[in-house]
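Technical note accompanying the year-one report. For the benefit of new consortium partners, we illustrate the data format agreed upon in the data management plan: each record pairs a sequence with a structure-token string. No post-processing was applied to the example shown here.
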Amino acid sequence: MIETCSKRCMLLGTILMGVLTIVVLILESHLADTLSGSQRRNKTFPTENNSTCWVHQPYTVISECHPCSDFEIRSKSIGVCIHTSFKEILKCKSGETVTRSCDRVAYLEERAYWTFTIWSLIIGLVSCFAVMLRTRVLNFRAKKRAQKALSNGAI
């Protein structure tokens, strides 16, 4: 099917696919920013001991958002781990230490992104080499066929 397309048609298709990809990326980025921004403003996370000192007072983050251990999740020893399986520890100005449930862990998402990117690169390179090898094999067979036809005097 693709062999019947002209160079002009292939070029047009490639350009359209590129434009479509860029439009989807822009739209997805815009929607992700819009949705995550509105959800974060309206979303309240459960806290340990129902303390909300971090809402009314300045606070410092003692421990950034990180995953809860399997033991904490299964035993439900820390209530905030039940909701999102992530927790962060805050210290309010009054001295109270609060454990709060949180959305995402940045370094885990970054690691997942880089893992996906590296695997995509590896698969792309393997596919590229497979195509190059297959092209060489087919060119070699065509050359042999042409040599055989010329040596037999068929042309």
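Partners are asked to follow this layout when depositing records. The chain has a mean pLDDT of 82.
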